[in-house]
Amino acid sequence: MKKVGTENKWYKSWFMKEVYKMAAIFAAVLIVVIILLSIITRHNSEHEVPDFSGLSFEQASELADASDFKVEITDSVFLPKMARGSVFRQNPVAGSMVKKNRRILLTINSMTPKKVAMPSVTGFSLRQAKAELVARQLRVGKLIYVSDMATNNVLSQRLNGRYIAPGTLVETESEIDLELGISGDGERTYIPDVTGLPVTTARDLLIDNSLNIARIRYDESVKNYSDSISGFVISQSPEASENIQRQLGSYVEITITVDKTKLESLRNNKKN
What we know:
By secondary structure, the protein is of the alpha+beta class. The chain has three domains: 47-109, Trypsin Inhibitor V, Chain A; 114-184, Trypsin Inhibitor V, Chain A (2-Layer Sandwich), CATH 3.30.10.20; 188-272, Trypsin Inhibitor V, Chain A, CATH 3.30.10.20. 28% of the residues lie in helices and 32% in strands. The protein has a four-stranded mixed sheet with strand order 7-11-8-9. Strands 2-5-3 form a three-stranded mixed sheet, with helices on one face. The protein is elongated, with a radius of gyration of 32 Å. The N and C termini lie far apart (88 Å).
């Protein structure tokens, strides 16, 4: 004798069989969609963006083609210490993982230098001269101290070692050396702490304290010109001191990094 209900179990009913069919069809469609999306979006086919810095646009284009990328110039700057027409900055940055055929946006160093009229800063104080030069997109170069009745009074302005007359057209970002007065041997300054600061800020602070940068060193993290002007000071020599006085125009050597772990370690040590 058969037991009642053994042949009419619910999961064997015609309704459940239809459910199974629909579920199988749905699963198959889902698998096909996932495969198609993977192909269309090139899932897991990302490539590392090469470093275009310092290359000409033609060289960057060749490298981009070989790496399945496209490059496009979107902006330009003028930096006198960098080769004309070379790549200064890129977006996405080198080392980023992006899909093939991605556009890499480039900022290049202008082929044609922008020029400005040299102002007259003779008779200005160091701070006034610095402000005037910055307003004209120029920079303070070397501070040269000579005996005079007024300390930090600008006696002459020079470019590449030669006196430069007001009104002369000079390239923007040029470094203008200033000959400054110093009234006596009693004039002294202190070396500030510039570690942890952006290199441009550190440079300004040293100038404001009547100091020169002897040399800029770069650690292994600095790979290109863009890094060199956007990095942070990781060390300085001589070290900062509020007790030891230095002659005006003394030199300070700084080391630059773009390694964020080193910078964070430095800041933590300062806190402790």
